[in-house]
Amino acid sequence: MTKQRYFFLILILGTLATLGPFSIDMYLPGFQAIAKYLHTTTAQVSLSLSSFFIGISAGQLIYGPLLDRFGRKKPLYVGLVIYIVASVGCLLVHTIEALIILRFVQAIGSCAAAVASVAMVRDLFPAKDNAKVFALLMLVISASPMLAPTAGGYVTAAFGWQWVFILLAAIAALILIAVIFSLPESYKPNPDFSLKPGPIIKSFLSVIVEPQFYTYAISGAFAFSGLFAYVSGSPLVFMDVFKVSGTIYGWIFALLSIGLIGSSQISSLLLKKFQSEQVVPFAIVAEVIVALAFYAGASLGWYNMYGTIVMIFLFLCCVGLTNPNTSALSIAPFSHNAGTASSLMGALQLGIGALASFGISLFNTHSAMPMAAIMAITSIIAMLVLFIGRRNIKHHFKPDANEVMVAH
């Protein structure tokens, strides 16, 4: 494979992988404008984010079997078309209920891109290059929380929130054209692969009964769900409570993402001296301490905008340490059914994250307290699951360095 071809394939797969993150982050600065247009509240608009998370969670379980049964490109075509149609629908809505439903459909479409990009890395590149390719993809994905909300803030301010969805639909259309004409079919359809519920459920059950999987996957999902509470609650906190513009909010979001991205890279350095099993308890306990301090301060009115930014930054640093290690430990026991384990882990992360996001809308308090409360609750649950579940692990499977790198 030539260097030019190598780069081009990574570019296409990278854009596929970032479609979901862009869909989440880019419309956040427009929450106030959407609420005003639809005659509702910012908290109600955040439900459209929760429905998106639910759609991605469901899609994790749907597309894995479809990609094995029909090959990679046909399910990808269907997913991208669904995404484009739903994106156009989002810019035409006149009720919050319609937006919530269409965001769910949009997520189902975007999930095809995310799942296919991971599968096609394994198909198209030699095994020895997979870790390097995944690291490049994760670098592209890591850029989306810095670029998407900032771009979304300027687009919303200049043209209106509907143009965010026009832009997302156009990006997906360009990706679809690139996939049709430039991306090879990397996996031959397997007509013997069963899509019946029985064998699929049996495969998932064989994964979830493994103590190391359910301990680290569930504790990691709860630890990670504080991030979803932040993403869902931050537009209300910064734009409604602290009265910043959508453009400034985009820059704040980009700044805070440095904590998550930077700490995940620090995790790689820590693993040169420590095991993942040592990093995870430290990171989750630190996350609990930060979350409780944030909740106490938010409840008592200790923090202004800058104090709130500092506390969220520290919390995201803890998440960045926890997530790659719990992810790697979760899938370490599996070799033949690593794909099933990975999709189930992703569904747990996104499903619990959707609940955390939905929890923000249950509060009617004009402060950072709801976001801090969800962060504290989920962090404490993560710590309890970790320390109770580890007692059931008889043989600890070790992830290698490549697995932790992929988890980033």
UniProtKB/TrEMBL annotation:
This is Multidrug effflux MFS transporter. It comes from the Bacteria. InterPro entries: Efflux_drug-R_Bcr/CmlA, MFS, MFS_dom, MFS_trans_sf. Residues 9-394 form the Major facilitator superfamily (MFS) profile domain. Belongs to the major facilitator superfamily. Bcr/CmlA family. It is a multi-pass membrane protein. Keywords: Cell membrane, Membrane, Transmembrane, Transmembrane helix, Transport. Its main location: membrane. The keyword Metal-binding does not apply. The keyword Repressor does not apply. Pfam families: MFS_1. The chain crosses the membrane at residues 7-24, 44-63, 75-94, 100-121, 133-155, 161-183, 204-228, 248-271, 278-297, 303-322, 343-363, 369-388. It is found in: Cell membrane.
